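Tokens as discussed.
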């Protein structure tokens, strides 16, 4: 089990085995998701409020409001539990969805919409995307 970032315990809780740097990254991610949801000029804002399927809800403000509310609620729960050693399934789901929103926001805001774009991206950005992906895959594995 050494090297795993998240471990499902017998009692159902999920142990968070992130070091200080890993926790700082997820804390920043959750903070950025909240900030992007609340601030129109945040770099990620457009990707958070744009319609998922424009043909379905482009002109439907209630769909947009519902998505914003869910994003905010999940990011708030994730941020509240970021320093916990153990999280429950609801908190883990909040982490997972907030990390997904962050990854989507990063790639959309930076124009990384293809493998070629990722390959030619600056190394620091590629590393950040890889870290988010690693956290997502590790968390999804225990859910």
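Sequence:
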């Amino acid at each position: 089990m050494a090297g795993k970032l998240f471990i499902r315990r017998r009692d159902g809780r999920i142990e968070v085995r992130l070091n200080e740097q890993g926790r700082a990254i997820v804390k920043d991610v959750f903070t950025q998701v909240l900030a992007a949801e609340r601030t129109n000029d945040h770099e990620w804002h457009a990707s958070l409020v744009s319609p998922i399927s424009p043909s379905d809800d482009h002109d439907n403000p209630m769909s947009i409001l519902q998505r914003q509310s869910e994003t905010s609620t999940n990011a708030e729960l994730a941020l509240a539990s970021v320093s916990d050693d153990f999280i429950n399934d609801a908190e883990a789901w909040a982490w997972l969805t907030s990390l997904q929103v962050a990854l989507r926001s990063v790639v959309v805001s930076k124009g990384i919409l293809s493998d070629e774009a990722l390959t030619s991206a600056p190394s620091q950005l590629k590393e950040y995307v890889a870290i988010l992906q690693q956290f997502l895959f590790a968390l999804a594995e225990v859910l």
